[in-house]
Specification:
The chain is 63% helix and 7% strand. It has 205 residues and is mainly α.
């Protein structure tokens, strides 16, 4: 049993080492379009490299086919989790931005200043518009045409699904500062449409 645990630890360390090396090489020497997709690709490459080492080194002789399947499923899930939990969350997280921003002010800012920080700093400093447009174009949910952004059919489906989920399956009593509210289950309910933003519709296949 002890020997089995030691071998499992060695395999885990091996996979995480491969994933770390692949990730570091990717971010430093190759172009990246979307952080999430890039991290997923790194996890796939890592499991392939791990598989080559695993079988060539005869490590597989110590495990049954069922155990080998378990090992690969676990490591695929670890790679998937690492891709989402580290680079993607840190890249996208407003919460991390708040902490980093407060830290630049020697650890404290006025509560009343946060809205101005988001409006005046956050969008520009994190290139929020450029990043999100790039991600959605790469995901096939929007397309750019003549200075306008159009939802694709895929984008319309995802927007409908997220709206349904938000209205029906998010918490109805969510704490915002000192108040429990359902305002974020339908945040666009009172949104006023600005006619200056509208583009002509186009027919899509």
């Amino acid at each position: 049993m002890k020997n089995y645990i030691v071998k499992s630890i060695i395999l885990t360390v091996l996979y995480l080492s491969i994933f770390s090396i692949v990730y570091l090489v990717h971010i430093n020497f190759f172009k990246t379009d979307v952080i999430l997709y890039s991290a997923f690709l790194d996890s796939i490459l890592s499991i392939i490299i791990f598989a080559v080492i695993f079988f060539l080194s005869k490590f597989s002789n110590n495990y049954s086919n069922f155990e080998i399947s378990q090992i690969f499923i676990i490591f695929i899930l670890i790679g998937y989790s690492a891709s989402i939990s580290l680079p993607t969350v840190i890249d996208r997280s407003l919460s991390f931005y708040i902490l980093e921003k407060i830290d630049t002010y020697n650890g404290s800012v006025k509560t009343s200043s946060l809205r101005d920080i988001f409006v005046n700093d956050y969008i520009d400093e994190y290139k929020l518009v450029e990043v999100r447009i790039t991600e959605q174009v790469a995901s096939g949910t929007i397309e750019l045409l003549d200075g306008c952004i159009y939802l694709t059919n895929k984008g319309k489906f995802i927007a409908s699904f997220s709206s349904f989920f938000r209205k029906n399956l998010l918490a109805k009593k969510r704490l915002l500062l000192n108040e429990y509210t359902d305002v974020l289950t339908d945040p666009l309910k009172d949104s006023v449409l600005n006619e200056d933003y509208v583009c002509n519709t186009i027919n899509q296949n």
